[in-house]
Amino acid sequence: MKNIRKIPPRWDDRQVRIKGWNREALKNAVILIEGAGAISNEVIKNLALLGIGHVIICDFDRVELSNLTRTILFTKQDIGELKAPLAARRFLELNLEETASADYFLGDISYELGDGVFRRVDLVLGCLDNVETRFSVNRICMRYDIPYIDAAIGSLDWNMHVMNGHGYGCMECYAGNALNESRTRSSCSDTMSKAEEQGKAATVQTASAIVAGFQVQEALRILCGMSPSFGREYMFFSDGNRMYNFPMEQDPKCEAHLTKARKEVEETPLSCGNTLREFLAYVKEKGFDTLDVSMDKERGFVLSAPCPYCRSEVPVRLPYYRYFANDFFCEDCRRENRGFFNKVDKSDLCMYDCYSLADTPQELLDMPLAKLGIPALHVLTVRDSETGKTAFFELTADLSEVLPGYSKKIGK
Question: Is the pTM of this model over 0.85?
Answer without folding.
Answer: yes
